[in-house]
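We modelled the chain as a single entity of 237 amino acids. Its sequence is:
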Amino acid sequence: MLVDTDGGFITQRQYPKLAQLVVKQIKGGIALQWPKHDWLNVSFPVRGIRKQVTVWRSSVNAAHIDGAINTALSAWLGRSVTLAFMDESAERFASPKWTNVPSQVSFADGYPILITNAASLALLNNHIVNTGGEALGMDRFRPNIVIDCHKPWAEDGWKTLQIGEVTLDLVKPCARCIMTSIDQNTGGKHPKTALTALKKLHASTDPENPGVLFGWNAVVRKTGIVKIGETVIPVSP
């Protein structure tokens, strides 16, 4: 995670061009690339400096990554930033308000998995196009898992998903924000098309989770490997 000098997390909300930051896993670390810059390899820290970092209301004692990567990213963003790494000594949990049992989460917004439904996007895009807009790609919603389902908003009736050996519990509808207006290829800002359409089609009626909704936050009950094309077995409440 990128953090500022106070340890506060930095996202596309403040710097939309972070959408252009490409990350891939390599042995013992990650590699990063962004426009007009070659790949830079970053090793996971084994020992060294630790610092307190914040994600929303969560405070996490994380490992600090030092070196040229911070200088390069700071120059690109035009402000001082550093990389923080959640190692085995760091700990953060999803909100107990929505989870029945403690659920570990990384530096993600709030939950380890975000699930979306292709049919819901198709319905949303149909509305957008019919009102004079341009259809959106699923990457605007940045899901971890996309389910190819024929029924829009079917996810609202799912409680648990079985995908191969993995079991996921859907715990909270995902309220969407301004990041849906950021082009995930260019980092450019676009009109608030998704938010405007979702206000008509899928607004929350729960005062505990206000806003417009697309996708569901999920926690992992049983770990394992998920493969593209696997059959998903939903379980309703």
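As a brief sanity check on the tokenised model: The helical segments are 68-77, 118-130, 193-201. The mean pLDDT is 95.
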